[in-house]
Amino acid sequence: MNAVNPPHRDLPTFVTAVERRAAQVVRNANLPRAQSEVLENCFGTPGPGEFIPHLMAPFYFLIRAHGTPVDSRCEALGTAFALVQRGVSLIDKVTDEELSETWAELGAAVALNSGLTLLVLGIDEVWAAETRNPDVANLRERLMQHLLCASSGQHRELTSRFRVLPTDERIAVSADKASECSLLIELAGICSEAAGASPGRSQLARYRAIGREIGILIQVFNDIADLLGPGSSDDLRTGTWNIPLTTLLNALEPAARARWERTLVRGQGAGKAVIEALYDQGVMASLARRVEQARVLVHEQSVLLPCGGPYLRLFTSWVDDLTSALLPCRAGEPAGVLTPQDALELSGLSDGDETIYRALCACRVGGHANVSTSSLSS
Fold this sequence. Notes:
CATH architecture: Orthogonal Bundle
Helix content: 55-70%
CATH superfamily: Farnesyl Diphosphate Synthase
CATH topology: Farnesyl Diphosphate Synthase
Largest sheet: none
Number of strands: 0
Number of helices: 18
Distance between the termini: 35 Å
Strand content: under 5%
Number of domains: 1
């Protein structure tokens, strides 16, 4: 039990606390008021449908699965991660030329400066967390490793615009860009280790591997949403041959591939034709297989972690929800129906987390509890 505040008992209160604390870090930075207000607007209390897709969800579930109290130490690390992740995401949006309407109105220069400021504040929070918790594994080392990995992925993506990479290489680039997912899952293991759950340094590699697969899942869904969404595709506009486009181009014969490359470079009017080709050439089926591979890997690696119980099941259900939009019904998992195992698991959850679990049960067939993956990763 934390000496100041009791541990968080459910996901909504934890996510809300992290968002508020991040905004408070910005306010405490003594920035000019106008700048502070812009940065504070990067954080806020999520609405009822925004807790499950929040990146703090898997972090919270894994910590609870270790039997570790989600206390102020976990809240501090969650806040540091939130600041770093929002900063990196905003910088990526500038370099990818994918700013939201709000940031576009402020301008790319303001967005870039804001992203750098959030990143600096987040790094400072990591430094402070390490100082307060000398028994915690080297947080700065972990942070720098993942930031440099993300930077490498971003560099390779930017320098490969209008070029077709091998599909596995494109997936690796996207996974590196989403290295913050590996960092997040690793931080959950570190929090548990500091509290005495002792995953151990050798175990941290397994946490990183789980996070990397989650990053791939998120990148695949963001890429599909970019191409199939109601608006024009940012990736088509900027010549970023994302995972679905790369898979499509590599599946074609040389002559057809050359024609498609010319069409994609021109960009205009390509959107509808691309969507049709993704289905006609079996790309969506191929991506569904890769997504299922990632889902299974996460399940297999998760059962080897030094944790278990209802919160580990919540974590894997959260991952299943990410995959449910692409995957067909999995045998024996009726949508929205609680199995006897579910009923048993519910007995170990707080009231607030039981509500989350019931929502995730609905993802097993055709349903999808996450309202969007846009809040998950850049």
